[in-house]
Design brief:
By secondary structure, the chain is α/β, with parallel strands linked by helices. It contains 16 helices and 18 strands. The strands form three sheets. It has a six-stranded antiparallel beta barrel. Strands 2-1-3-4-5 form a five-stranded parallel β-sheet, with helices on both faces. Strands 7-6-8-9 form a four-stranded parallel β-sheet.
């Protein structure tokens, strides 16, 4: 995939001057060796930090070697002033971890278990955040596993702070839930470039007769195979080239881009197609295109893409599952199930039998009597069964960021419906729906990862400074808003 940063991690070991520096250095070497055994490419900073002068030298070594993700390693107790200065001045994603003891003999004991407490306290004094694992003190093998978890979080933090969201068209009146304050995005380091639908239409018309259209059309046909309605492909190819060229021309000082585009109802009558298939194709390249000008939906999809390294999609948390279908979901109650749906924006790799279709809801009003023409362009099919994570980062009406994360699975069920669709099971969904989604006033769009990515997403959102992160509470654990007497 493209459109995401490459992470180069660097390990800086620190040492308190009343402990032997050699202890921290040997533990650093063991950690680097364990990272190599796991295939994690890390740069070993040779400067061991004991003083502020060492901290300045270590920072220079990090910058000179292109390191963009820091692992601060307390090989022993560590000097809290210099070590937290490194995190502050590095100005990139940083993880802090500490060495467990191999012996309690005086010469080999480092007391990093104690030192991490002071490090954390001093990070707070400096107003600096860092990723601290759930188990931040461990052996070389255990900490190498934590560094492996940190890499996708670092990729997400780097990507978010270097991204631009291109939007086309005002957010639809009947979807005001997609309309949210933009200031919190700038607080994250995200740039937003809002454009009109007329800007997009002018750019599209400027690609009339583009010599590249035939090649893109052939590539689309190859992806679809035997599929109806493929006569629409030249129009879709022209649109795909329009978006990619616009992004390349307008990235400016940003490195990565995503889209949030209005896609109905005037889109069909003027552009004369439904853009879903193009949205799916760009998502497969790491460039999400959120429907209905959902700017926070685009951000949520991109964070998923950064964390998983795989395409994301945006789905409506759409409808309940009829009892006859729910009876075929062993291990789940009907209240644990819902159908995730969108018109056809999900990458083909996640669909059982992807086909080109038409937007049935739009056809009812725009082309009620004839063969579909301007409503063609959806990529349709049931989702392939497998793990799934629902995720959204959103600003509320007061401009405060909040998020939710819930893991579940896509069930192996044929829906017999239209669009990109599937039955999704989330344990204790009914309570999560009521007290997080409804109670938290989240919109109907969910970012969807086709993987269990909750751990990395949680660390990413926490590192972005989001305090309100909802998740599906297990049975017996009440939400703050849940009535404790309701079941009596």
């Amino acid at each position: 995939m493209v459109n995401m940063p490459l992470v180069k991690a660097g390990i800086v070991a620190v040492s308190r001057d009343c402990f032997p520096m050699s202890l921290s250095e040997s533990r650093r070497a063991a950690l680097v060796k364990e990272c190599a055994a796991r295939g994690i490419d890390v740069y070993e900073v040779k400067t061991t930090v004991e003083s502020e002068t060492d901290a300045v030298a270590a920072l220079k070594e990090l910058r000179d070697n292109g390191v963009n993700a820091l692992v601060l390693f307390l090989g022993n107790f560590g000097p809290e002033g210099p070590e937290t200065y490194i995190v502050q001045e590095f100005r990139g994603p940083a993880m802090v971890a500490a060495a467990a003891e191999e012996t309690v003999a005086a010469a080999g004991r480092g007391d990093a278990f104690c030192g991490l407490l002071n490090c954390s306290y001093n990070l707070g004094l400096r107003g600096v955040s860092a990723v601290i694992p759930e188990r931040p003190v461990g052996s070389a093998a255990e900490l190498a596993a934590e560094i492996q978890k940190f890499i996708p979080v670092a990729r997400a933090l780097i990507g978010v702070r270097a991204m631009k969201i291109f939007s086309f068209g005002p957010r639809p009146y009947d979807f005001l839930a997609c309309n949210a304050p933009l200031k919190p995005l700038y607080d994250l380091g995200v740039t937003v470039m809002e454009n009109s639908e007329l800007d997009l239409f002018a750019a599209y018309k400027a690609h009339d007769g583009d010599k590249r259209i035939d090649a893109v059309t052939q590539d689309m046909a190859k992806e679809l195979g035997s599929s109806p309605y493929t006569g629409i492909l030249p129009r879709l190819a022209q649109y795909e080239l329009t978006l990619l060229d616009f992004m390349e021309k307008n990235l400016g000082y940003c490195e990565f881009g995503v889209f949030a585009n209005k896609c109905w109802p005037a889109f069909q009558t003027e552009f004369r197609f439904v853009p879903c298939f193009v949205n799916a194709r760009l998502a497969s390249r790491g460039i999400p295109v959120a429907c209905e000008t959902d700017i926070y939906g685009a951000l949520s999809e991109y964070i998923i893409t950064l964390v998983t390294g795989k395409p994301a999609t945006l789905l409506d948390i759409n409808n309940t599952v009829p009892p006859a279908m729910a009876a075929n979901a062993p291990g789940y109650q009907a209240s644990d199930l819902f159908m995730g749906f969108h018109c056809g924006n999900t990458a083909a790799c996640y669909l059982r039998k992807p086909v080109m279709g038409y937007q049935q809801i739009m056809k009812r009003s725009l082309e009620p009597d004839g063969e579909p023409d301007i409503t063609r362009g959806t990529l349709e099919g049931d989702f392939i069964a497998g793990p799934v994570t629902l995720f959204r980062l959103q600003a509320n009406a007061s401009g405060v960021l909040k998020s939710y994360i819930a893991q579940g699975e896509i069930l192996d069920m044929e829906t017999g419906s239209f669009g990109g669709i599937g039955v999704i099971a989330v344990p204790e969904l009914a309570r999560f729906y009521r007290h997080v989604l409804v109670g938290g006033r989240f919109p109907h769009h969910a970012g969807v990862a086709f993987a269990h990515a909750g751990e990395a997403l949680f660390e990413t959102v926490k590192a972005l400074g989001v305090a309100d992160i909802g998740f599906n509470q297990p049975k017996g654990v009440l939400y703050p808003s849940e009535n404790p007497f309701a079941s009596l």
